[in-house]
Every structure is written in structure tokens, then in C-alpha cells.
Amino acid sequence: MGGDWVYENNGGTCVAIAGLDYCVVAGDTRLSVGYSIYTRDYSKICQLADKCVLASSGFQGDIKALQKNLAAKHLTYQHQHSKQMSCPAMAQLLSNTLYYKRFFPYYAFNVLGGLDNEGKGCVFTYDAVGSYERVGYSAQGSGSTLIMPVLDNQLKSPSPLLLPARDAVTPLSESEAVDMVKDVFASATERDIYTGDKVEIIVINAAGTRREFIELRKD
């Protein structure tokens, strides 16, 4: 590459699963380039609002800039509307923010999870330039090609072509979804050198948010 190449992929994997009244968002904590691990303890998850969490993989420099940008816009929104942004509103804001930079994109692959206005779990999945979709579950990052087939097999979303439209939430209970996340990360870690060390799991429900860490293999 020439000296003007400004992007770098720091690897790692993010997963989100939406249920009837909860959302699970998870990411591993490894940050690396090539065969070097820079740190084994870097969170890929950012809490944007009480009921809205963003997990991002890609170039962590761009991701940090994106998170700061969203935080500033959310603060402005709170001053103007005297309330926090809903998760679907934050999803649209993230799409707009990414699309605005489409000719020099944030090298960030995002999955946004939380609760919508009805208290249902919601997951929004993105490409680097802001195209997004509300889904029942998603994975992004270096291990997504290993994890997504497993989630598809276990959770099969209803087709968006079905009429009447069906809710894109998974049939799992909250504890089953957390166990599923632990399993897919353990599997991905076996085959993807950029995923490992620990997985950080955030569970969002009506009671609030809780965080837990599960150890993964460190090689």
C-alpha cells in the first residue's frame, strides 16, 4: 500500500439478538492488526442511550470518531426534546451519519441493538455507508462469516416478503439468547485469529442494562 492509505482493520466480532422484551448485544475484546495483538481488553460496545447500544468492528480510529459524533448529536437531541432518542431514531441517525461520509467512509461495520417504543427488542445491521435493516439477529466483523450461518440455522427470521408482516424477533428466552451468544463466540474463536480473549455481553430489558464478561481462548 502507498503512504496515503488511512484505513486499518482491527478485527473482532459483534453479535446482537433481539427477543420479545429484551436485546442481547455482544462483542469480543481483542484488538489486533495482522498477526499482532495490540490489546486483549478493548470494548467494541458503546452505550448511546439507556435502551440503545452500538457494537462496531473495523478500524477502531474511525469507530471512536463515529461514537463521539453520535454522542454529540444525541446530546443536542436531548437538549432540544427533553428526552433520550429511541432506538429506531438512533438507527436512522446512524444511517444518516454513515451515508453523509459515503465518499470517505467510516471504516466501521455496526450492529445497533436495544428496545423500541413498544418495549420489543430490536436489532439494526449496517454496511459501511449507512444501508441498514431491522432484523431479529445479526453479526458483524471478522468472525461474522462463521457466526451468521449458525444464527440463520438456529433462529431463521420470517421472510420480509410475508404478509401480514411478522415481527423480526427471535423465539428464544433471554437466558437462551445469552447462551447462544456464548456458544457462537466460542466456535468463532476456534477458527478466526482476530476473535478471542473475552466476550463482553450487554443485556437490555425493561429493568435496564446489565453487562457480563466470558473468557475465550487467548491464542
Notes on the protein architecture:
By secondary structure, the chain is of the alpha+beta class. Helices cover 30% and strands 32% of the residues. It contains four helices and twelve strands. The strands form three sheets. Strands 10-1-2-11-12 form a five-stranded antiparallel sheet, with helices on one face. A hairpin with a 2-residue loop joins β11 (198-205) and β12 (208-215). α3 (144-155) runs antiparallel to α4. The chain is globular and about 45 Å long. The mean pLDDT is 95.
Structural class: alpha+beta
Largest sheet: 5 strands, antiparallel
Number of strands: 12
For the biggest β-sheet, the strand order reads: 10-1-2-11-12
Distance between the termini: 28 Å
Q: Helical stretch count?
A: 4
Over the alpha carbons, how many angstroms does the gyration radius reach? 17 Å
Given as residue ranges, the uncertain stretches (5+ residues, pLDDT < 50) are none
* Overall form: globular
Secondary-structure element series: EEEEEEHHEEEEHHEE
Quaternary structure type? single chain
Mean pLDDT: 95
Q: How helical, in percent, are the residues?
A: 25-40%
Q: Which band does the percent of strand residues land in? A: 25-35%
